[in-house]
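Following up on my earlier thread - several people asked me to post the actual chain instead of describing it. Fair enough. Here it is, all 406 residues.
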Amino acid sequence: MSRKILLLSPFPPQRDAVHGGSRAIAENAAELAVDNRLRILCLRGDDEPPTEDALANLCEGVEEIRRPGAAIGWERGRLWAHSLASGLPLWAGNWRVEAFRRAVGNVVETWKPDVVQFEFHVMAQYRDAVNKGRTVLVVHEPGAATAREQLRQGPWWLRGLRRREAGAWTRYETEALPGFDALVCFTPRDRDEMLAIAPGAEVAVIPPAYSAAGSSAAGSSSNQPVTNRLVVLFPGNFLHPPNVDAAMRLASRIFPAVLSSHPHATLHIVGQAPPPALVSLSSPRIVVTGRVPSMQPWLSGAAVVALPLSTGGGIRIKTIEALCAGKAMVGTALAAEGLDLRDGQEFVMADSDRGFADAISSLLTDPARRSTLEHNARAWGETFCRPGRVRAAFESLYQRLEAVRP
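Reply from S.P.:
Thanks for posting it. Predicted structure:
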């Protein structure tokens, strides 16, 4: 059955994006567009690239509404102050754009979608603009649960802000989540979090789509870093606090131990908006790049991908990307959550700093073991990326909603 689906996104979707959330939305949208009539309405910051052309061609329409305050400056400060005063989570306050709310209402009224699908919890604030069609909220990462984790682990000088954020996310999600016909999350742990907030809600666990064809890690020669089999990679968007915590841990506590046994090894920390504290750790052996055009060349040049994540929910697109690219990976249990990975087969699991350093050093020394992990990672990726998996799961969810409410 073909449906009219309006997809609301906090940023322009792109299947080759460095930002994992943008990629997850784009991959799911491409799957849904196969059997449905899809329109995308998204916010776009001044420093963000537009929606991918190939994805736009699959849709009946794509509309981008400017989101002011993307760059650091007075406008961003004003938005943060507004969030603090209103009690909203900072992210939700920064993404509150009345022009977008009006655009949602207009498309719903004129196009009359069967389903309005909200991507990321931050978009739940626009639920009141929808008075027709079924509503689905895809929670890529629970806000309150992640904020509580960061509060427990954060430095003392950030605890006041993080305590405020944890309370704001709890209020926000408690008010917003029960208003949707269905919730979608990526892992069983996140499902439990959603049901604790909205008991009795329809909650489906649907890991995001991912295109193996887009993860070859071939890259273009113009962007290709120097290939070195002693390269360790951490990819991430550093507007996301769990990535900052993991990268700081890797650069300041884990990688120095790797250098003691491999003095010529190099750590590449790649992704947009690295904070000054992370940039300050740059050295001849630690490269902090900032935003890059594509992650694929950096994956291609890495011997090991290291993901010492200790906070956050959802599924890590960076984990999927590394495995589908056939990379040897060392990660925490959290980095592998929801993906049915086997320690020692598709990746190496480590949680302590010492365990991480030993695992990375061992893989740098042992190319045969790296090769085995790479082979197993690619095989896993072929199964995870099978076409139609996500499309079938959403079709089943839509059918359940139609059976409950005509």
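The two ends are 15 Å apart (CA to CA). That should answer part of your original question.
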